[in-house]
Amino acid sequence: MSIRDDLPERASGPPDGLHAVELCLGYHGRPVVRSASIQLAPGIVTVLVGPNGSGKSTLLRGLARLHRPTDGTVSFADGSPALDLSPQRFARRVTLLAQSRPVPSGVTVRDVVGYGRHPYRGRWRSGDPDGPRAIGFAMDVTGVAGMADRGVDELSGGELQRVWLASCLAQDTRILLLDEPTTFLDLRYQVEILDLVRDLADEHGVAVGVVLHDLDQAAGIADRIVLLQDGQVQGAGTPAEVLTEEALTRAYGIPIEVTVDPVTGRPRTRPVGRHTHRVGRVPKEHHRNAAAERAAAPA
């Protein structure tokens, strides 16, 4: 399926964004994110990259109000403080796909996708006229419509990841936060999910903040990249401005070569290990076997 060509209509709404200023976050008194500032703007895909433990996911959770900051502010594009909203009203503006989610039992794929409509429903799951449209959209673009009536406890890890993403899309917010959304997905669905993220920004003005480990995927999808190291923002800007050999080598602690993709003009990275530049070699055993076969062949 071409996600871009078949993208259904989403509910219209005013553009929205998030702006964090000097945000500090920690666990049990231990600082994890230090004075980080980040802006998620309508129609812009902002990708957070950095080594493990750099604070990417913690910063995303701070934007989603799942981790209360010890200092700093988070506000919407209109200047209103994000922490002032009720959970229900906040969930109508921001949704997060976390790294790990539970595997519910006894419920179908359609049920789980419908969980995304919780901010719009009353006590008896009423008062949500846009629900069927939003759920249908979410299942279509994530490729799970064909398994709508299957139990989620029957699914593979990759299928379940797509179902939880569909649940987030059904929430139909103008701000979308994704923590490693391509985890567990095979190559096809990695590409299609990242295509969908671009479509949501380009076609619907959604402000997207996403954590990715793959630097080439980040370079290919991002309008802006935020590079974190040891809980601090080391660089923010376009992929070409941030993904430099010097900055990446310093952040990841390993030499990283950066070239320019001749097709896209975007950075392309390659970590350099001891065997990175090894030219293809044929094992000695292969040479011995080939020599023996030649010797045994009839003249």
Automatic annotation (TrEMBL):
Which CDD domains does this one have? ABC_Iron-Siderophores_B12_Hemin
- How does the record say this protein sits in the membrane? Peripheral membrane protein
Which one Pfam family would you cite for this protein? ABC_tran
User: Which residues does the UniProt record annotate as the domain ABC transporter?
Assistant: 18-255
Principal localization?
Answer: membrane
The protein's name is: ABC transporter ATP-binding protein
Q: Where is the signal peptide?
A: none
In the record, what lineage is assigned to the organism producing the protein? Bacteria, Bacillati, Actinomycetota, Actinomycetes, Micromonosporales
* One Gene Ontology term of the molecular function aspect: ATP binding
State the source organism's domain of life. Answer: Bacteria
Which PANTHER family is this protein grouped with? IRON(3+)-HYDROXAMATE IMPORT ATP-BINDING PROTEIN FHUC
Which cellular compartments is it found in? Cell membrane
The answer on whether this UniProt entry bears the keyword Transport reads: yes
Q: Does the keyword Cell membrane apply?
A: yes
Task: List the SUPFAM superfamilies.
Answer: P-loop containing nucleoside triphosphate hydrolases
Which keywords has UniProt assigned to this entry? ATP-binding, Cell membrane, Ion transport, Iron, Iron transport, Membrane, Nucleotide-binding, Transport
Species this protein is from: Plantactinospora endophytica
